[in-house]
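Case study 2.
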Amino acid sequence: ISEGGKPDGVFFYEDMGFKAKPFMSPRMYKEIIFPAHKKTFEHAHSYDLPVVIHSCGYVEPLVPGLIEAGMDCLQAMEVKAGMDLVQLKKDYGDRIAFCGGMDIRVLETNDLDKVEAELQKKLPIAMKGSGYILHSDHSVPNTVDYKTYKYFVDRGLEIGTYK
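Prediction:
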């Protein structure tokens, strides 16, 4: 880091969930994965680097353990798997940040009224007290028109920008 510059943070790709349930129980996470996460996340924190965890699937039961291990931000929050950005923000927003949680299936409709409704439903709550980065809950497929995606980003900035 001292020779090559300092990154903004460390992004871990850790898919840990199926649709409607995690790959493992919270107990199993604590016993098997947690020790390695804690050690790795502490190393990142020793360089003042925030830890962002990407996970597809339903991982809500694992979030308390991930927070205890040192996760600073959860990315993706896949709606079709059962993740709920609004509830996660209410439950954990005082401890971690979030990136994503906007249902990509809504963007795929290319219906700007539906995109607007998705933004209005989630963005004001997700932004409360800081700690939210606007993003979809999954990769943006080529079925999403440029006009739709541009609207999503531009309206997101209009509805909520931290100052």
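The beta strands are 10-13, 51-55, 73-76, 97-100, 132-133.
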